[in-house]
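# nightly structure sweep
# worker-07 picked up a monomer target from the shared queue
# config: single-sequence mode, recycle default, output format = C-alpha cells
# input follows
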Amino acid sequence: WLLRFGLPTDQKFLGTDPRLPTCISVHHDSSLLDKDKDKDNNKVGLLKKSYSPISHPATERTFDLLVKAYTPVPGGGVGDAICNLRVGQSLVGKLKAERLVHGSPLIGKRWNRIGLVAGGTGIAPLIQLARIILDDPADDTKVYLLSINRNEHDILMRKEIDQLAKDHPNRLYVSYSLTGKNIRSDWEGYIGRGSVDMAKNALPPPSSSDGKTTMIFVCGTDGFRDMWAGPIARAPPLPDGSKGPKIQGDLLGVLKEAGYEASDVFKY
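# output follows
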C-alpha cells in the first residue's frame, strides 16, 4: 500500500530539518482488538514498528508511507492496522532520532557517488535518500540503485523508480534482480540475491579504486543485510544495564568480497 498522511495543522515538515532523512515509530494499541493476543491468549498491548517515508523530507504538510499489510501474527499487525485506517482516521507515531551515517545525519553533497542496495521493502528508506540527492540541482552526486525482489510483479515502486531514472538520466542508474524460480526468458536484469559480480556491475566502485568517494547503503531483512554487508552489532551495555546502542559492526559479505571498506558502507 502507498499511503499519504497529513501532518498536524501546526507542523510544516515531518522532521526538524527538511534536508535530513526521516523515520517514524508507528504505535498501534492492539489491546483494542480482541484478536490481537499472544500465544498464551493474553492481549498484546502497544506494538511499535519503524517506517521510513518514501516522500522527500521537504514535502510540506504530508508524508507518504509504503506499507505491506501482512496477515497479523501474535506480537505483530502494525502494517495491517495502518492499511485498515479509513480516510480521516489518525496514525499515532513518534519521530525517531536522526540517523548518523558515519558521523553526520546529512546525505547530500557528501560523496561523489552512492549505491543503494534494496531488498524488497528495503526500498522505502533508500528511495528517500535518492530523492534528497536528486531533487537538489546543486548536488551532482551520482546514484546507483539495485532493487532485488523475488518476482517481477513484486518490484515495489518500479513505476516511480523508472520515472526518476527518466527525469535524471545522467545521475540515476537503476538495476533490478529477481530471485524467484519462474523468471521470463527475456528478462534483462540480474538474477540472484547478490554476488560479487553483481556488486561490481550494478554499484559504483570502492573509494579506494580511483580517488572518488563512494557510499553504499544496504537495507532489507536481517538476512539480506547480513549477506551483503554483515550483521549490525551492539555497543556494550549501558551503566543502567540496558542494551547498548546499535553500531555498524564489521563489514562482511558480498561487499567486503567485492573490495569495499567499512568506511564505504552503511547498513541501514
